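Reply to dn_fold:

You asked what the input looked like. This is it:
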Amino acid sequence: MRILVADDQAGVLDAARLLLKSEGHSAVTADSPGAVLNLLSRDEFDLILIDLNYARDTTSGEEGLDLLQRLHSSGVLTPVVVMTAWGSVDLAVQAMQRGAADFIQKPWDNMRLMETITKQVRRARDSRSDLDIARSVQARLLPHTQPSVPGLDYAARCVPARGVGGDYYDWFPMTAGQFGFVLADVAGKGIGAAMLMAHMHGALRTQIASAPYDAGTLISGLNRQFWESSSAAQYATLFFARYAADSRTLHYLNAGHQPGLVVRARGSHRSENFERLASTALPVGLFPNWSSQEQAVGLNPGDTVILFSDGVAEAGIERDIEFSETDLARMVTGAQHLTASQLVDNICHYVAGLAPEQHDDYTVMVLRCGQAVP
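and this is what came back:
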């Protein structure tokens, strides 16, 4: 095992290093919360063992608790065991609430410490195994083939924040000359959100089989299934589009999702060269009944439709960097020569640069209108 040990006392670090070495494990040491974060940014560990107090003569544990909060908010999945010479039940509870896996007091008992480390590492490995299974299942639910859509180039990518997540996209033929596209964002993150996403995938596919012609009926049925099988706090925003190839018309329903953007090929020198496809209804799963009228927008050769989740819209927000709809439209108008797949790559690369410590899933779908169907 590889353990990261953090304490401001050299004697404690030496004792931990010698104990772990005697048990056949290795230790990397840090003497401050900043050093812990720096090491985690460039290395991986099986477990993190941290002190709760770093400043001399402090007993509150606030520095360690703050570090735990930062690790948790950064999506660090490595188990953390906290230690303090000033242990108390209240401090232990606070540590657990901020993401600690276990709690020990200094001076520690060697056998107790090794038992704790071994138990938490084993538990984390079992959890990672479950995560790998969930990741594999979720990957299989996303489409791996693309039906040929006359006059339309399209692509999408989903980037979960924790290996699995609640973002979801799909596409499918509906009727002769019409094709459906959906991008959804289930509330929450991690395995719980992924389970709800899988449920949504199955429910939507079931509704398509029974109501392939009417988008309103389709999403209303999906809403009912989602509402009946989930708690009141669980819901999903969703953008559903139905593209008619013969008329180059996009019919859509927006259930509380981020507005889609239609970036026009002509007039790109103007700031208003894009149109917003705003919300037309509430998110699905909030109430037993759901309804919405389809809206429609005509597309011309060279026009581009961008659908995205809030992970794109909020990228950079923690660094006070705003990624606006205008910025997104400019990326499109400056890349008319790119395919839909290349444009998706560019947008995802830019989002990753804005949010190197990813906290939310993000998904991008691009539809690019080509020449008229003969």
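DSSP finds ten helices and 15 strands in the chain.
Hope that clears it up.
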